Amino acid sequence: MKNPEINAARLLDRIQQLGAIGRDAEGRLTRLAASDADMAGRDQLVAWLEAVGLEVAIDRIGNIFGIWRTDTDANPLLIGSHIDTVIDAGIYDGCYGVLAGLEVLAALKEAGVAPARPIAVAAFTNEEGVRYTPDMMGSLVYAGGLSVEDALARVGIDGTVLGDELRRIGYAGARDAPFATPHAYVELHVEQGPVLEHKNLAIGAVETLQGISWQRITVQGVANHAGTTPMALRRDAGYAAAKVAAFVHERAKANTSGSVATVGSIAFEPNAINVIPSRASFTVDLRNPDEARLRQDEAALQAFLDEIAARENVTYTVERLVRFEPVTFDKQIVALIDEAAAARGLSVRRMTSGAGHDAQMVARIAPAAMIFVPSKDGISHNPREYTADAALVDGANVLLDVVTRLVGI
Amino acid sequence: MKNPEINAARLLDRIQQLGAIGRDAEGRLTRLAASDADMAGRDQLVAWLEAVGLEVAIDRIGNIFGIWRTDTDANPLLIGSHIDTVIDAGIYDGCYGVLAGLEVLAALKEAGVAPARPIAVAAFTNEEGVRYTPDMMGSLVYAGGLSVEDALARVGIDGTVLGDELRRIGYAGARDAPFATPHAYVELHVEQGPVLEHKNLAIGAVETLQGISWQRITVQGVANHAGTTPMALRRDAGYAAAKVAAFVHERAKANTSGSVATVGSIAFEPNAINVIPSRASFTVDLRNPDEARLRQDEAALQAFLDEIAARENVTYTVERLVRFEPVTFDKQIVALIDEAAAARGLSVRRMTSGAGHDAQMVARIAPAAMIFVPSKDGISHNPREYTADAALVDGANVLLDVVTRLVGI
Asked: Between chains, do A233 and B381 touch, taking CB under 8 Å as contact?
């Protein structure tokens, strides 16, 4: 046995190779869950898992597990992320965590170590949720938060059914996951935000993950002629929507508790230059690492909606689209990440994840935490998503060290 | 010769008959300019004009004139409006003025009077501007504000060319209008606003018409992750747009000079729940009866855009879509309207038109004014557009009396 070491060139090369799969004629990368492009990415991953000598298992929701069995029946340590992408994606989101996990297992095997428990790398199905809702679906099913039957019946934005598509691409497994309860779960991921770069840090030890509240708000007013209706007699749904959009932004900005708020999509009806909008529908994305504060933000929004509806003589309805409570990750694993980074001389800080991740689902059933590396300009879900090679290797090394500690090597 | 009198039943019946032409399977009324439905409406109007013994002339832009020639070469008195409609329209907008004009000519003929100058009723092409821009096109061409070649080359929302469509429906006249300069122009129209009803008045003597400023503003920010981008680092195009929409509304509402402001249409990019908008495009419709004040409103918008762009670190572009200066109608004709209403015991008030009308174009070349009758709830461009029969008859009688005075009977 020698000291396990990441093969940096192999890891970086595989990130590029996987990132080349699923490009359209204009070079845009899109591997939506259970698409032909996703199949091609999965086939490549499975080939790599098998080449390292891992046992490959596919569960009913299509999650891929590469397992290093040991002769104990101890619960396995699980590491992983996802390899599906958004439309016109970058190459790091998700893929980095899966391929670094694969690299860690390869490094451990090549070093001839004997782990005290099984280790597995997972690629969870449909983390992005672009084609089928909800996002983080594969890990949610794995953690028991959504029935596999319900998930497989979901109809996509293209009218397809997920179960049919998984069968079509050959990734509808016949059995449940090969282990229901991992010993622990660690996920390495690009930050997708600007904090680490902004503070010139190498590693984030993610101790919390923000709660997420997504609502669709529809304001109903009265369409009328833009030229002939005096301002005092208007019931302008568009104006009310603008006031709400400004309110949530300004409240979050004034708040020091880490709230973020976004109105990302909007539509007016009839949406004509010279007609006062009768209807305005828009989404509000609220996040906070603290559940009590997230509820305060939701309550403040509700109160403002009531106020503006009364003042502007409009009505509104609220559709709750997504609601996840904040997640607190496992303190011991977070401490291990901190120590591992420090031991390698890497600057590190405890932080909150602003994005949702598979780790928040697996945290329902096992101790879990995440390792972040910097994202250039905080950009993600975009072809300009970028993390420097050296930073990617730093992250993989920290993952290696944390795994080594967790499996008792 | 007897006293000329409107045939109220005939007028009301024709309004209903014309309103039945151009209905779809669901009963919705749509006669877009130069469409099959418009052709059917035009054919009906021409039949009625001919039945009264009027000479029918079609000019190159498709305006229909029904002319009562006299043996003088005096400039004719012109009355009229339009018979094209918006999508899912009411039956009064435009049609009422044309059919009341026809009824006035019929009443005068039936009374055996001998007018001192020719009288003509006009139905101007494409007042609504839904299928082809600009709106008020036929009267604009007639008044020399747009070349007929330019107008005929306009491409519609359905990809058609207006000149082709006018030929197809048989309304591409070979010659210019049968008279270039009318003696005067009077247009009777439903108010399309709530003022007359609100003040319980029968007749509006329209002395001014608001200036109109339409702009499309596009704000450019930076798309980023809604969960991971701190509020302080955002360049949120959607938030900036919401602030501008709120600003123009609130400024107009606080203003006592008669300003109205509407943000009627909006679009975000990428328009996703969890992505900060990189781009927000929206329209601003500003109107004021006073040119200096309208310029102040435009300048205030510009200043606010500069302020918000600097504060939010976004950029913006402005596209000017429509700009018409306010119109002051002819004082003598407005006084005639006032007197005619009062003589019939009808309550009347001087007022401003909030909407654009063919009269504003004809006012460029001849003394012009408008007569308004109340619109129930101020609703227009909507199947619920409604004016009571008695009010329609009142308006037609005032038109009759004004015409009688203007042609020296």
From this structure: no
Ordered DSSP codes for B73-121: -PPPEEEEE-----TT--S-TTHHHHHHHHHHHHHHHHHT---SS-EEE
pLDDT at A2: 76
What parts of chain B have a pLDDT lower than 70?
Answer: 1
Count of A-B CB contacts under 8 Å: 201
Q: A-chain residues within 8 Å CB-CB of B379?
A: 224
Residue A187 β-bridge partners = A370
> Residue A378 and residue B233: Cβ atoms within 8 Å?
yes
Question: Distance between CA A135 and CA A171 in Å, rounded?
Answer: 18
Check CB contact under 8 Å for B264 and A253. Answer: no
Which residues does chain A have with pLDDT short of 50? none
Interface residue of A214, A236, A265, A320 to substitute, partner B, most B CBs within 10 Å: A265
Q: Which of B210, B214, B274 to mutate to test the interface with A (most CBs of A within 10 A)?
A: B274
Of A226, A230, A265, the CB nearest to B268: A265
pLDDT for A28 equals: 95
Q: Do β-strands B368-373 and B203-209 pair in parallel, antiparallel, or remain unpaired?
A: antiparallel
Q: What is the pLDDT of residue A210?
A: 94
Q: Which residues contact A238 (CB under 8 A, 6 or more apart)?
A: A221, A268, A276, A277, A280, B245, B263, B264, B266
Q: What is the pLDDT of residue B72?
A: 86
pLDDT at A255: 86
Burial annotation A98-134 (CB, 10 A radius, 16+ → b, else e): bbbbbbbbbbbbeeebebebbbbbbbbbbbbbbbbeb
How remote is the C-alpha of B358 from its chain's centroid?
A: 6
pTM: 0.81
pLDDT at position A380 is 87
Strands (E), A155-243: 184-190, 203-209, 211-220, 224-225
Chain B nearest-CA distance from A33, in A, is 18
**pLDDT tens digit sequence for A317-327:** 999 988 989 99
Q: Which residues contact B12 (CB under 8 A, 6 or more apart)?
A: B389, B392, B393
Determine whether the interchain pair A268/B271 forms a contact, defined as Cβ–Cβ distance below 8 Å: no
pLDDT digits (tens, 9 = 90+) for B113-122: 989 999 999 9
Interface test with A, best of B265, B312, B372 (most A CBs within 10 A): B265
Contact A245 B232 (CB under 8 A): no
CB B195 within 8 A of CB B204: yes
Chain B: closest CA distance from residue A198 (Å): 10
Q: Count H helices and E strands in chain B, helices first.
A: 12, 16
Mutate to test the interface with A, among B262, B319, B384, B385 (most CBs of A within 10 A): B262
B256 alpha carbon, distance to own chain's centre? 24
Domains of chain B in sequence order: 8-209+327-406 (3.40.630.10), 211-324 (3.30.70.360)
Decide if B378 and A225 are in contact by the 8 Å CB cutoff.
Answer: yes
Whole-angstrom Cα distance, residue A242 to residue A168? 45
pLDDT of residue A382: 87
Please tell me which residue of chain B has the smallest CA distance to A253.
Answer: B231
The reported pLDDT for the residue numbered A1 is 62
Q: Residue B1 has what pLDDT? A: 62
Q: What distance in Å separates the CA atoms of residue A162 and residue A18, rounded to the nearest whole number?
A: 23
Judged by CB atoms closer than 8 Å, whether chains meet at B238 and A225 is answered as: no
Q: How many CB atoms lie within 10 A of CB A153?
A: 13
Cα A396 to Cα A373: distance, rounded to the nearest angstrom: 9
